[in-house]
């Protein structure tokens, strides 16, 4: 799997406000001044594959566990697409989502992220 793509996706998420329906420029405090993102929990998307574990050292901010799960599904599909372009498809990988306390909250398996159809 393309580890660099996962790291890039996690870095983008940590530097971007991911608050559903609210653009960063729309966030204002009570005085009408621009405000930073509301406090969101940080989740870590650790990649587990045939080559071992690639820990997510920085994590990403998401409004909830479901948003972190959607991001992990998207990331794992992108990694699988990159593998397929090289002629390989490993359905044994997974992303383990941990919360700020270091507790695993969800796992996204490659085999569950896509529907495999055989002709």
Describe this structure in words.
Strands 1, 2, 3, 4 and 5 form a five-stranded antiparallel beta sheet that branches. The chain has one domain. The chain is α+β, with helices and mostly antiparallel strands and 119 residues long. Helix 1 packs antiparallel against helix 2. It contains three helices and five strands; from the N terminus they run αβββαββα. About 15% of the residues have low confidence. It starts with a helix and ends in a 6-residue tail after the last helix. It is 32% helix and 20% strand. It is elongated and about 45 Å long.
Key traits:
single chain, alpha+beta, five-stranded antiparallel sheet, 119 residues, 20% strand, 32% helix, elongated
Distance between the termini: 25 Å
Low-confidence stretches: 9-26
Roughly how much helix do the residues carry, as a percent range?
Answer: 25-40%
Rg, alpha carbons: 16 Å
Structural class: alpha+beta
The proportion of strand residues reads 15-25%
The total beta strand count reads 5
List the helices and strands and how they pair.
Layout: H1 3-15, E1 42-49, E2 52-54, E3 60-61, H2 65-85, E4 94-98, E5 104-109, H3 110-113
Antiparallel strand pairs: 1-2, 1-3, 1-4, 4-5
